[in-house]
Amino acid sequence: MTELSRRDWLLSDHPASRRQARLGQAYRTWLGFRGNWLAMVGLGVVILLILLAIFADVIAPFDPLIPGDLRTERFLPPGSGAHLLGTDDQARDIFSRIVHGSRLTLMVVALVSVIATPIGMIVGTTAGYFGGWTDAILMRITDIFLAFPRLILALAFVSALGPGIENAIIAIAITSWPPYARLARAETLTIRDSDFINAARLQGASSLRILWGHVTPLCLSSVIIRVTLDMAGIILTAAGLGFLGLGAQPPQPEWGAMIASGRQFLLDFWWVATMPGIAIFIVSLGFNLLGDGLRDVLDPKARK
Amino acid sequence: MAPLLTVEDLRVTFPTRRGPSEVVRGVSFTLGRERLGIVGESGSGKSQTGRAILGLTPRPGVMTAKLLDFDGIDLRSATPAQWRKLRGARLSMVMQDPKFSLNPTMTIGQQLTEMLRFHARMSAAEKQRAALAMLEAVQIRDPDRVFRAYPHELSGGMGQRAMIAMMLVTEPDLLIADEPTSALDVTVQVEVLRILDRLVRDRGMGLIFISHDLRLVGSFCDRVLVMYAGRVVEELKASDLDKASHPYTRGLMNCLPQIDRDVRPLPVLQRDEAWAR
Amino acid sequence: MTDPLLETRDLDVTFRRGRDRVPAVRGVSLSVRRGESYGIVGESGSGKSTVLRAICGLAPVSGGQILLDGVPIPTPRDAAFYRRVQMVFQDPYASLHPRHTIDRVLSEPLAIHGFDRREERIERALSEVGLGEGFRFRYPHQLSGGQRQRVAVARALILEPQVLLLDEPTSALDASIQAEVLNLLDRIRAERGLTYVMVSHDLAVVAHMCDRLMVMQHGRRVEELTRDQLRAKAATTDYTRQLLAASRGYTPAD
User: Fold this and answer.
1) Which helix (H) or strand (E) holds C87?
2) Section B113-117 average pLDDT
3) Cross-chain CB nearest to C176 (options B216, B218, B255)
4) Which terminus of chain B has fewer Cβ atoms in its 10 Å neighbourhood, N or C?
């Protein structure tokens, strides 16, 4: 099949199979997304992060945990010899630590979205669809979570669970679902009484089937957009917990913890804290750009 | 008598991903102090024609015309300042749904007197008198209450009448009514049409009545333009609608179910590619 | 009247808005015979659509009875009810799920009710409403308004119901498309011996489609007419006469 005919096949207005219809729909979304270069930059950053995490062992020239020669290799400035971004107080290669730190960052991002998104979706759509007492109880619980600033609540959870990257992820996930629940509920309320939901009821569809097959797909895109835009905040919260010593524990190369340990040398050896800071900045920006781009193609309401 | 409005070769173009798309393609007509109906199905360009005359083509659409003359004023080159003077005072438009055209935070009375503030020098008492008189003219039985009411406190028919009052309080020379009665119940519809009818007859207003309802336009207007795919396919006197020669007009007439006659199945409009050319 | 299939007796529907109780339907009785086409005409707010919604369980019944084949129908409605009574909604742009293909729209009811030979049924339903196989995997946004309404009709028919409730099925469509959909509904009723209850604000549409009709105003029944009575202008109330006059177009006051 040539390139041109594959494009025609995807964009056909007469799809001949379920698969072609679904792929065609995805391709149209992709065409819309591709037109936005900032979103493409965001996507590039996120793909780069994933590649870094997968091939960290190959890319990193040094071991991220084992210190170098403490007499000659401490605080080497960026660009000195084999150390592209310099070395830290333990004479470890900063570039290698950042590359390996991407695994931790990606793990935080992936686990938080895998835990928080479904909780938010289930709570929000259930509350919105059933209304009444269900709605009142679920939303008051959500409000209680929303009443605390996320970092404070995460701090409380981590101090209860004990410091460590796993507990930090659980704490962030537990504290980040309420906004998704609110969003999913609002979306559900707007479609709950629409005729296509009524039509499904008149087919005899059960509440579970309507929630899962009809309501969720329509709420999903706005929640995905919101999660993507929140990723920057989640990475910063994880870094913040690491910075406070409650997230990843030394010698793990978590970016926030790296800033924390580099901060005492900030005036003399600026690169130790700055390099992981730049990494956090780039990845957060990447997720924000990606989220903006996704909103443009997935959420027709935001389109101008 | 010189025509009130002359339109020649009006075109409205919207850019799309597949290149520019022309939704109004060379519409020409003249309007005197009469009721002119523009009829067509959705997508025929009838609403965009009405908007373009008032300079309200939504962006990124572009309007061009060889001639667009309103009472000696070239509307194509009107500046924003000129438009402000014209719209409301001499040119008005009634939209389909009053909900989107009335300001929900102001009472009907405030909105009516505000129209006058822009367009006439009157004292506050005079303005209120004029506004109340207008509400009465559009058959609102309790003008004092409506004057103080907010839009959400009015029913659909009341809201539409209040909006017509707003558009007419400045006594415009030309009114463009885009499906003004489609959102109304048939019994209210008749009353609204009577108001418009009287204004044309008593005040010599020019009316462009845009509608999808051929039966209504045929019985209400003096002249009818039938639009299809951005063009006027036929122009005829409303009373001659039965003798329409274009197959599209005839098809539209025939496909309507009628109470008196039982035609089964209803004749279906067979579209011809050539009409759009 | 012999063999009524669908009946309402003194049907009351009251909506609660906060503390207010808004009566939408007050004491409406109607009786539709098997194979008959029955119309309900009225203006907005007359409660005509609410009667349909109450029958299929989308509006709360606060008084009276609804009977199918002489048996009061259960609340909430059960699967057996939905297999016998289906509905077509007014706005074809709002009644199809934007992210579901036509295939999914039609296969879901079959899955819910455990029907066999699904492929065959979907193909037959599509061809019955005049849509070819080429439409099966399209999304609603790839269809015109008339095509969407055909899909909605196919969805209602795929469970092979006995009664079709039609809520202004053509009021969102252009006149030429309206004629096509009305012809389609007419043909299907003749072929399948269906019973219709059709709601519309357009007297001409109801007169074309229905053997008998009820005029409603402010939630109450005004009068009931047969098609022949309507043609003979044998309306007994002023309100119906007003509706009749208005449906002919504009008549100057003097």
Assistant:
1) strand C85-88
2) 81
3) B255
4) N
